[in-house]
Amino acid sequence: MPAATAHLIPLPVEETAPTTRERIVEVAARSFREIGYQKTTVADIARTLKMSPANVYRFFDSKKAINEAVVERVTGEIEGMIAAIADTPKLDAPERLARVITALHTDCRRRWEAHPRVHEMVEAAMSESWSVCQAHVDRIEAVFRRMIEDGVREGSLTVADPKAAAACLHAAIVRYCHPLLVSRQHGTALPPLPTMIAFLLGALGVSGR
Amino acid sequence: MPAATAHLIPLPVEETAPTTRERIVEVAARSFREIGYQKTTVADIARTLKMSPANVYRFFDSKKAINEAVVERVTGEIEGMIAAIADTPKLDAPERLARVITALHTDCRRRWEAHPRVHEMVEAAMSESWSVCQAHVDRIEAVFRRMIEDGVREGSLTVADPKAAAACLHAAIVRYCHPLLVSRQHGTALPPLPTMIAFLLGALGVSGR
């Protein structure tokens, strides 16, 4: 078939691998969020998609594998969001760090607070698919490290080991950005995020912001 | 009865209110740790103690109230431990802070890692009895604040608002000291605690330790 006319022949959408895969992930994500990871079965996902469980298993060999794809999609969105902020022109490194941390917190609240059952999916990923979580942590810390290195170069930060500082910074904000903790914070005990950010920027050699 | 001879007459131990209360808390603590909060009933606790559920209810009006007493006992032990470290003579504030944080982390690992079911008890306290958790957080932060104020006085720390800094410091170590997170850390992602402590002491105006 000539390439110039190939696009005129509609593809059978149901049978196109990437699209079916995406639809499975989409339906699974919604079910994990609303019904919960524990109560969702592969058969439920297949039924919603009006396909056989065997067809779902052509794309994913287990519910765990589906969850990994769901988590990868979510973490990919988060990483894309913070990379865009980290690349904002004309802002110094402390300001970009503050904006990235604020965005992680806001996104986490928006994404998880409304759906308590999403905890199950996160817990499952943490216990069964740690490498997916670890890869996300590594990519977030790479973005932090890049901003810290920029700050050292531009003279706005004083940090001896940017890689270690990025890891410490990330560990220090877990109370504000971890799906298992954000929805439980009850607001009472936690310092306001701007206070916390100023404290942590102090650890990076910035003072009096 | 003359006070001088009262101690010679043995009290009926089973009927002494504080002791029975303590035994209920002891048995409940063990059951929550080993069987889990969800699966433990007040009837189970009574059966272990060879008493009627009604007798348990004379001391605690619900399983939730028993859990609060268990959590208060545990948090009291932790607070006693760190208060003793915070009062160690001849150590400067940064060193005492480092030792308190290390002790909180070590205690948390020792106490929770071996008993995965203890999560249920912690989750129940966090969702049903937040004031008990909050009181613990407040007391830990009061100890941090006292050490930070000592450090400012002795010139080893530079902190404008010790109360806020204590709250930030506590929030920043949650990854190392929270029962819901410590047992899940898998070791891979987290900076070593001494690195994290040095980072956080930097936020308190200490450098190059």
TrEMBL record, chains A, B:
Residues 41-60 bind DNA. It comes from the Bacteria. Residues 18-78 form the HTH tetR-type domain. InterPro entries: Homeodomain-like_sf, HTH-type_TetR-like_transc_reg, HTH_TetR, Tet_transcr_reg_TetR-rel_C_sf, TetR_C_27. Keywords: DNA-binding, Transcription, Transcription regulation. It holds the Pfam family TetR_C_27. SUPFAM superfamilies: Homeodomain-like, Tetracyclin repressor-like, C-terminal domain. Gene3D superfamilies: Tetracycline Repressor, domain 2. This is Nucleoid occlusion factor SlmA.
